[in-house]
Amino acid sequence: MISIIITSRNEPKTVGKCIRCIADKKYSGLDKQFEIIQISPDKETLDAGNDIAKELKLSPKEFIQIKDPKRGKPFALGLALKRAKGDILIFTDGDSYFEKNSVKHLLIPFENKNVGGVTGRTLSMDSKTTMMGYWGHLLADAAHHRRISMMNIQKENYYISDTTFFPMSGYIMATRNYKFNIPSNVLSDDAYISYYIRNLEKQIAYTPLAIGYVKYSTNLKDYYKQKVRSLGGYIQLKRFGIFKKDKQSRSFLIELRYALFVLKYASNLKEFLWSISLFPVRLITWLKIFWERVLLKKDMPKTGWEMSKSTK
Questions:
Q1: What single DSSP character describes residue 311?
Q2: CB environment 278-295: b (16+ within 10 A), e (fewer)
Q3: Which pTM was predicted?
Q4: Which helix (H) or strand (E) holds 66?
Q5: What is d(CA 219, CA 221) in angstroms, rounded to the nearest whole number?
Q6: Contact yes or no for 6/38 (Cβ under 8 A)
Q7: Would you state the torsion angle of the CA atoms of residues 184, 185, 190, 194, taken in this order, to the nearest 10 degrees?
């Protein structure tokens, strides 16, 4: 049994495509019994999920909905995890979708009993002709480069961690069902799960053939909002004592090592200028993180983090 958990909020226009790319077995390559668990707080997104489930003729056992109480994504994940019956869990968001056969490729590494989690490659669905769109492509490709560099043992089209790894992406991620108890106030749930699995002495695999398309922020306000939360979550993880087997993998100093990659990524003068422009933006991002996470010690709001509207 495979359990697919889709967290989705204010995404009635995209959640249907997300569900279809998994439930359509000819497209996803999924050849096992499955259940899709959609957890959303708003009626519009829940209704959109129901509409596609009816169109695909999914049974009540194959499609389950949970009303999200708006207490943050980690809390919502906890509710879904309690319902999940699968031996393997697949996590994604309602504003993203998978490439053909991505589910099949995501499951292959689990044939190795030492693999506890698998992540796929994220690609931007935004146009590369704008600065923000270009940044999305650059950052997604930088994550891909870092994963294949750190997971240097390749087996049948996927990489597997050894002494080093890079955390999984919550946009396209699968794990064994370890009955996770995710803290409801954690800011980077995908990173928490990744380190949790590594602490169990299990490996993380990366399969670039499993592709998840993601829409990134299209304005600086949303960009800072999203990155201060996700990157700043690594600062917060120290409080949970999750850095046991592995050290923290995201910081300003670690990012500086990729400065040359950012510059070399550009293919023309315009893109080169956009690459240079990213440096002060990332510096401001880390200064905001230091202010909010280290000095003010701000945590998850009781109502959950504020959504980035431009990614919807």
A1: G
A2: beeebeebbebbeebbee
A3: 0.93
A4: strand 63-67
A5: 6
A6: yes
A7: -80
Q: Which sequence spans correspond to the domains of the chain? A: 2-311
Torsion from C-alpha of 7, 99, 63, 115, nearest 10 degrees = -80
Which amino acid, residue 116? G
Main-chain dihedrals φ then ψ at residue 50, nearest 5 degrees: -65, -40
The DSSP string of 8-38 is -SS-TTTHHHHHHHHH-HHHH---S-EEEEE
The tokens describing 290, both together, are: 């230091």
pLDDT digit string (tens) for 8-56? 999 999 999 999 999 999 999 999 999 999 999 999 999 999 999 999 9
Nearest to 74 by CA among 39, 45, 46: 39
Q: Which of 69-73, 121-125, 202-206, 307-311 has the least mean pLDDT?
A: 307-311
Residues 201, 115: Cα–Cα separation, whole Å: 9
Provide the pLDDT confidence category of residue 292 given band limits of 50, 70 and 90: confident
Q: Which CATH class is domain 2-311?
A: alpha beta
User: If you ran DSSP here, which 8-state letter would residue 305 be given?
Assistant: P
Per-residue pLDDT of 27-39, as tens digits, reads 999 999 999 999 9
284-167-250 Cα angle (round to 5): 30
